[in-house]
Amino acid sequence: MISKYLNYIFLIFITAACQQQELQKPVFDISPEERLDPKRKEAPYPRIEIPEGVDMESARWKGIDLTPTAPVVPLSAVEEQKTFRLQPGYHLEPILAEPHIQEPAAIQFDGNGRMYVLELRTYMQDIDATGELMPAGRISRWEDTDGDGIYETGVVFLDSLVFPRFVVPFGPNTILSMESNEDHVYKFTDTDNDGKADKKELFATGLGRSGNVEHQTSFLTWAMDNWMYSTYNSRRIRWTSEGVIQESTGNPYGQWGVTQDNYGQVWFQDGAGGVPQNFNFPIVYGNFRVEGQFQEGFREPFSLVGLADFEPGMREANPDGSLNNVTGAAGNDVFRGDRLPEELVNQYFYGEPVARIVRQVRSDKSEGLTYIQNPYRDQATEFIQSTDPLFRPVDMATAPDGTLYIVDMYRGIIQEGNWTQEGSYLRTKIQQYQMDDIVGNGRIWRLTHEDHSRSTEKPRMFEESASELVQHLTHPNGWWRDKAQQLLILRQDRSVVPELEAMARNHENELARIHALWTLEGLGSLKADLVREWMQSDNPKLQIQALRAGETLYKYGDKGLEADYKEMMDESDPQVAIQALLSAYVLNFGDVENQMQTALANNQVKGVQTVAQQTLDKIAAARERAATQYTAAERVLFDEGKSIFDSYCATCHGVKGLGTPTGGAGGELLAPGFSGSARIQGHPEYAVKTLLHGLTGTIDGKEYEGVMIAMGENTDDWIASVVSYIRNDFGNQGSFISPEYVAQIREATQDRDSNYSHDALVAEVPKQLFPQDNWRVNASSTALQGVGSTRDPGYAFGFKGWKTDETQKPGMWFQIVLPTPQNLAEIQFDAGEEQFPGNYAVEVSTEGNEWREVASIKGEKGVNTVRWEDNSAVTQVRLVVKDARIQPWAMKNLRLFAR
């Protein structure tokens, strides 16, 4: 919105900083200290006063040392390099640093080996987090063009971002990303090859959160199973040639980090908890409690920094001031490269930036369960330590050159502003060492070993044929295998299916076979006979992959596999038996409870007992939750809609809402899938009109074998039930549809005597208009957001929300001015439980001089929806309070629709 941040002169500097740039080689020996006030080191060090009202005998404060102390001073990268304590033979070397990058938080590589850097340039720029949601974040892209290992050539691929959450390379010159306090993931593409994204497309919705920036979605990651996982979301998403689909999962309990091992097990990194999460079983099967999975002493860090500058305070400080219990963690990677010692391969690593360490994790297997430990605990050390208080490892990644890269945010404060407020312990310690001054830095390090050299092979996957990409599935570096698999699936080139099938059956490399299997699955070309071959293998790792990949075939209608899954429950290898039970649960076999009871009675292996019992608990809890999830009226609609769908619709649209496969080549569907469909979750008029009058022809340029016939002879209740169900199952989240709404649509379209074409239907249905920078949004009243700043009315479009600074009064208004005329038809907004408006009107205008009322309605708690029939083109719309309530007026998740 053009009104957003207009009052901030800072935008001038953003524009200057975000131009495309060809930068010279980073100079690692120029210290950021030069940017600091030199008097700071020479002046008498101030004494830190105890905040008023603090209980010095409390566990947090007791024993605190507030002696006037010399400030912490930043080192150059060359100087910082000397502070690392590594295991024998290992070295860290800088490959990129400030001023070229600032506040780096994550890295990813594209198919040509170019490194994308997520830069959180507004993160804690002072102790009060001032301006943290200013649009100054960016994603830069870097390349080593001369092969010397230093990333010297950079461009700003995407700028002016509000605290971006992740970067996902997604094919040539394309990435996925999302901003804070938003619900939408966008695809950004550089179409003219100038290094800067110039095209923005909606990719997926429903993945966002609001609130503290440390507690929002991060690290969207494409895994081996061709699904993408992120932190905080109890769902996974998947790109297909038909669109992005979604499925429910367990709670990842991750905060800043998602990665996978060589066999596709996804690991999530907790933040404040300081430990990895959900590493025993794939998250799609839900959450499981494994007693003792963190072995004794795992939570103890061995830090060389003794400033006691951590949020828990002295209660978690050793006598020397170092941290005695992990309190923060960020970034993770299972090392899968080929240019470090073999004992590191498939080992998990993560950063503990409060302790200034990088932790290596050893995984011990027993009775089908995983238990983790710090392999250096007996030596009271870590894989990497530093004596520099500013070393802040926040991400790491297996690189195309076969080594491990570590992202070092290199800064004073690493905790969000909620924990540095006036009177807090942490604020006192930060000020004691003047660490709030140290911002705007950042380094990326390469980990090497004296017995191994980095690879100088430069990826060129974007220029390679599909057959050449298949050969990379045999590469010893997991990064190459992952990227080749992803690009093959994005291309959807099935000409290589015979090569993939041969590799999956015969190749001597176990990991190559596994990637070939999942590539076939991603191309829609996996066959049941190959899955059954693997199920009968004498290799448990291949059996597990077959069970997981076979789930896709079952979901798309191959019910004959059920008997194979049940047979696998009796396998002697506990991990295979466990996987068969998990698959039976997620596929919802009719007798799954009996299968779990049988496993409990007949298999005393601890892992089997854990999974079977806790799965039974989940089934019982789901049954109880289902009884209260919806209102009584919604439950009637949902249950009746499911019954209708299973009896009629599933034949074409698939029993899991994924579509029914057809065609000999694979990858074709009889009818579109519903899972994650933007059409189904969007405006309900689309699905209602489709059912009433039918749909023929291409949909988004795709031909389907089936024809959607008109169902208008059914009752309004029947249609409302079906639409309500498909909008709220298959991972979808949409509003329920009333029979009265169907009746209104039926009456309005009663003269139609033929099926809709897709283009004609889309032209009629209101489409959501997504906020753009050239929208102007203002209001007659807006509340303060902290000291001296207002809650911008543009926040009404996100989770953060907008509200008035006083109770409602007649005549209060909220206004949107669009750059071009639109045929507006509907407004939706969430007013919360208390601060909804009284009676209010919707008014529209072409110039803003004369307004006409098109709707008047009574406000209500929760989601408010206002529709109107006067759809003439206008550029301005406003909501005006008519009868006020004794509450402020608030709105969030505001949506505007136009025909």
Automatic annotation (TrEMBL):
InterPro entries: 6-blade_b-propeller_TolB-like (IPR011042), ARM-like (IPR011989), ARM-type_fold (IPR016024), Cyt_c-like_dom (IPR009056), Cyt_c-like_dom_sf (IPR036909), DUF7133 (IPR055557), FA58C (IPR000421), Galactose-bd-like_sf (IPR008979). PROSITE patterns: CYTC, PROKAR_LIPOPROTEIN. Keywords: Heme, Iron, Metal-binding. It holds the Pfam family DUF7133. This is Discoidin domain-containing protein. Residues 636-730 form the Cytochrome c domain. It comes from the Bacteria. The keyword Iron applies. The keyword Heme applies.
